[in-house]
Amino acid sequence: MGLLSGSVAISRFTVAPVPEEIDFDSQAFREIEAGSEIRESIGFVPFEPEAPYQAGERRWFFRVRIDKVSPDPTAVQERVKEMVKAELDQGADFVGPKKRKKLREMAEEELIFEANPRTKIIEGCIDGQILYVGSTAKAYLGRVTEMLRRLGIIAEFKTPWIDRGDQDIESPILEIYEPGEAVLGARFLRALLGDREIIFEPESGFVRLRTEDARITLGGAVLKDLHRYVERGAELLSAKMLVGDPPSSFRLEATSFRVAGLKIETSKHDHWTELLDERLEKINEVFELLDKKYDELAPRLFHV
Known about the structure:
By secondary structure, this protein is α+β, with helices and mostly antiparallel strands. Helix content is about 30%, strand content about 25%.
C-alpha cells in the first residue's frame, strides 16, 4: 500500500517549519555495499529516478527507503541444529539454553554476510503545512518523522481533537499510551453508528472493539452484534466504513484517526504526478468529511 498505487494506508501530521527549499539530498539513501559491516541504511529517494522532489507550490513528494540486512531465520535455525550436533559429536553431554543462544549469535553472524538487504519503501507528501505518510505502522511513522527532523522539519500528529484543542476524556475500559491518540477517537467512531454519510460496512464488515473483559473482532454482517456490544458500553477501536456514491471502503483506526485500506478509483494519466494529485485529492476528501463529522458530533463525545 502506498500513496501512488493500490489501496491506501495514510497518516496525517502538521509540519513546521517548512523552508522554501527542502534539501532531501543531504539525507539521501545510500545502498549497503556487499561485504559491508553496515546492517541498515535509511534515506530519501524521489518517486522516480532523478525526478525532482518538489512538484507544485509548497508541495513535495518523497520516499523514505530502508534497507536492512538480516540472515534468513530458517537458515539460522538449520545452522544452529548443525552446530548443536557438532557440539554433541565432540563429546558434550548437553547443550543448554545459554550455549544455544551463543551458537545462534554465531550462526547469525556467519550467515549475515550471505544475506541480501530487505527493502521497505514509505511514501510521503508535504502539502503546505500537512504531511501525508503512506503508512499507519507506528515504527515506520517514527522513522519518517525522524528523517524529516534531520532536515529541520518537525511533524506533529494531526487529529481533529488536537486541531480543536479538545481535552481527552477517560474511559473505564480503554487506556491510551501513544502520542496523538485519544479516547475521543473511539467515542467518535461509536457516534457514527446510524450516520448517513459515513456508514459501517453492513455485509462484509470488520470491527475491532474493547469490552471490560476482552478485545473482540467482528466480521461479516456486523451491525446486529455491534449494536449489542455498544449498548453494553464497548469502546470501538477500528471499523470498515463506506463513504461516497459509488461507495469507497476504508478502515478507520479510531484512537489515532488514521485511515487504512482506502480504495481509490482514478482515471488514466500521462504522468505520475497527475495520478498522485488525483489520489491525494480523494484522500483529502475522506479526511475532510471525517473532520467535518467530528466537529458535528463533538458535543456528544464527552457523554457516554
